Amino acid sequence: MNTTSLLRRLLLASVATLGLGIAQAQNFPAKPVSLMVPYPAGGLSDVIARMVNVPLGKQLHQPVIVENVGGVSGAIAAQKVLSAPSDGYYLFQGSPNELILSPLANAAVKFKSEDFRLVQIVGAAQIGFLARKDIPANTVDEFLDYARKMAKEGKPVTYASVGPGSFYHLLGEHLSKVTGIEMTHVPYKGGAPANQDLIGGQVDIYLAPFGKNYVDLQKEGRIKVLAMLNKERLESVKQYPAITESKQLKNFDFNIWTGYFVKKDTPEAVVQTLHKALTETLNDAGVRSGLETNSLLIAKPLPLAELSKVYSEGTAQFRGIAKSINLQPQ
Predict the structure, then answer these.
(1) CB proximity list for 316: less than 8 A, separation 6 or greater
(2) pLDDT number for residue 86
(3) Are 118 and 260 found together in one domain?
(4) Other CB atoms closer than 10 Å to residue 264's CB: what's the count?
């Protein structure tokens, strides 16, 4: 076979493969879709997934099966998605915790945030500024004055997190840095033990994803809710000050969103199909009611171009905070 014939055959094979790929993308989905949740069943991430999977399946006309794969701060589930074909049949439900912070904090995580593409955001968890019940402060400003006094006495206040490199660890370190007040990090293996020690007075504060359980704990006098890290008072938590109402932390507003991701090289036609289906799912009354019941801020569906910008800006923001506190992968 001469060189010209060989090149012609290779070209024809490439065109045929491309045509097959386009046809598969146009027929997507032709089988069930897996929704990867990076934590065990029973937690908030799992609850969200099981609110979404059935309505999403109706939009896609195929079952959406929830798979719970915990471990390494969500990185095991993320890596499973990356190891699968780039065909859209593995959808990852994640947040900055798993896809932005995990690679920065854990040396064993080898993927980059840019290996994923954000298809839609479902909602955001509000962050509460929680304190032990007997702390001598009832506002954020009073707490900071107290924390400053304790630091000068060589007894810095403590803040809880769900582990080194987590979003809540970064918030605590960032709080210490922007106020110039020394604080001591107390990491836990999850939210439950952190809550237990906050209630027991073993840790001073916890910047935590806010749920209705904290409303009950505050009413029972077992913790204090000093503020919400929101720009303004929201209807669902209007009894608590927004962080912007404080004098010393006016720009310390944060939340953490949950979204749906695919591998970055997933065919555009598949991404468009998933984006349309997820957008319609977010308009489902049952999904919206479920998110509100769990104190989540319902996301406004965004076009793909804007989602890329949100993800890029979020990645830059968290990398900036990690750099500012000298976060090193362990």
Answers:
(1) none
(2) 97
(3) yes
(4) 15
CATH of the domain at 310: 3.40.190.150
Where does the chain show beta strands of DSSP type E? 33-37, 64-68, 90-94, 116-132, 157-161, 183-187, 205-209, 223-228, 255-263, 296-298
pLDDT at 329 over 70: yes
Q: Residue 172 pLDDT more than 80?
A: yes
Q: Is 278 left (phi over 0), alpha (psi -120 to 50) or beta?
A: alpha
Residue 295 counted as domain residue: yes
**Cβ atoms 109, 97 nearer than 8 A:** no
Report whether 67 contacts 35 (CB < 8 A).
yes
CATH number at residue 143: 3.40.190.10
Predicted TM-score of the model (pTM): 0.77
Domain with 67 in it: 32-124+256-324
Confidence of residue 6 (pLDDT cuts 50, 70, 90): low
| Top-confidence residue, 321 or 116 | 116
